[in-house]
Write a structure and sequence with these properties.
single chain; mainly alpha; Alpha-lytic protease prodomain-like; Alpha-Beta Plaits; 2 domains
Length: 295
């Protein structure tokens, strides 16, 4: 688990440093040129940097071991950090939309220099590389936080692409395009924020993490298992807890029944690196009246 938190923090630091560089370049040029779409993209990168700092703190806190008051550990702190990222995206979108409407009411003639295109194309390429890097590491480490941030970075790629198209149109004396592009950017950011909130609220609501059909397929292959029901999984992508009702033959001794139960637990933990514990309620055929169909 220590390796997990250390690796996640390394990824976050790489992303943080690059986001600060991109935010500085875009905001500086956007304010200098008066082009709102570039400033908006820069503010989003600045917000990304703040979100990276929040994420780094969250990962540090979530690495604390289980204790008496928190027997399941602190891993859901990462979930709260992801929710903060989602909310902050929606808030910055509101500010971008306000500035865009102000541009509609007070139009300006804008000029785009070659350096503006260089800055935006460079940051686009960096964002593409970052998105792929975070997604790869997120899947590798089974980190919801990195996966959420990679989706966010992927939206940055779309946003920057839209800005570049807008800059081309501005250079063709269509300055009205700037606030329109800014509103499109805000809408893309809002959608990303809502998606992140939805995914992480599901974690807080203990939505199933592993499809129950997969659990059935594994457990039913174990000798001595008569029936499996009321299977539930919860937790984060990297930290899953499973509980189920397991039916065995009523003629078995306690030791024999426990052996089957232990085999089921060990098999599931071996099958899924993310499964931290499996709670099994043993029953005989007479106890199957408590079966619940969650579908």
């Amino acid at each position: 688990m220590d390796d997990y938190h250390g690796e996640v923090k390394k990824v976050i630091m790489v992303v943080l440093i690059l986001n600060i560089i991109m935010a500085t370049l875009k905001v500086s040029y956007g304010l200098y040129s008066g082009i709102l779409s570039i400033s908006a993209d820069g503010y989003e990168s600045l917000l990304d940097s703040i979100a990276n700092i929040v994420a780094f703190i969250a990962v540090s806190l979530s690495s604390r071991p289980e204790d008496k008051g928190h027997p399941y550990g602190y891993v859901k702190i990462e979930t709260f950090a992801s929710i903060i990222i989602g909310i902050s995206l929606i808030l910055v979108s509101y500010e971008i939309i306000n500035q865009a409407f102000d541009k509609f009411l007070h139009p300006q003639i804008l000029e785009v220099s070659t350096i503006g295109f260089v800055i935006m194309i460079t940051t686009l390429l960096i964002n593409i590389a970052l998105s792929r890097y975070e997604k790869k590491k997120g899947k590798e480490l089974k980190s919801d936080l990195l996966i959420a941030d990679s989706d966010h970075t992927k939206s940055d790629v779309l946003v920057t692409s839209i800005v570049i198209i807008g800059l081309i149109l501005v250079r063709l004396n269509l300055s009205i395009i700037d606030p329109i592009v800014s509103i499109i950017i805000a809408l893309v950011i809002i959608k990303t924020g809502i998606d992140i909130l939805k995914d992480n609220f599901n974690i807080l609501l203990d939505a199933n993490v592993i499809p129950t059909a997969n659990i059935y397929n594994i457990v039913y292959k174990i000798d001595g298992v008569k029936n499996v029901h009321n299977v539930r999984t919860r937790g984060t992508t990297s930290n899953v807890y499973v509980d189920m009702h397991l039916v065995v033959n009523s003629d078995l001794s306690m030791k024999e029944a426990y052996s089957i139960s232990r085999c089921c637990k060990d098999t599931l933990i071996d099958s899924y690196d993310e499964v931290k514990d499996v709670l099994i309620h043993l029953e005989t055929e007479e106890g199957m009246d408590d079966m619940v169909d969650f579908d």
